[in-house]
Amino acid sequence: LLKGLRYPQTAHDLVKAGKARPMVLVMLRPTVAPPRDTECVDIPGGPQTETFFAKDLPEAVTGSYR
To answer: SS3 for 4-44, per residue?
Structure first.
């Protein structure tokens, strides 16, 4: 994402050209409990990956940057 698709640079270029609004770009690895692959779902008694990505992270970003 950083090297191949150049997300940060592309986002910057689009904002600079007036084709996108300024944004907070949040990029995380989907494996939050390595080496365990949670498939981005909540594991009973284990990592709550889906909740983290779908609820906790958006709330934290919105609360900090809006």
So the answer is: CCCHHHHHHHHHHCCCCCCCCCCCCCCCCECCECCCCCECC
Q: What is the number of domains present in the chain? A: 2
Contact 56, 47 (CB under 8 A): no
Q: What is the pTM of this model?
A: 0.72
State whether 22 and 46 are in the same domain: no
Q: Which percentage of the chain shows pLDDT scores above 90?
A: 59
Tens of pLDDT along 18-50? 999 999 989 888 788 888 888 999 999 999 999
Question: Which range marks the domain in which residue 26 is found?
Answer: 1-30
Q: Specify whether 45 is located in the same domain as 65.
A: yes
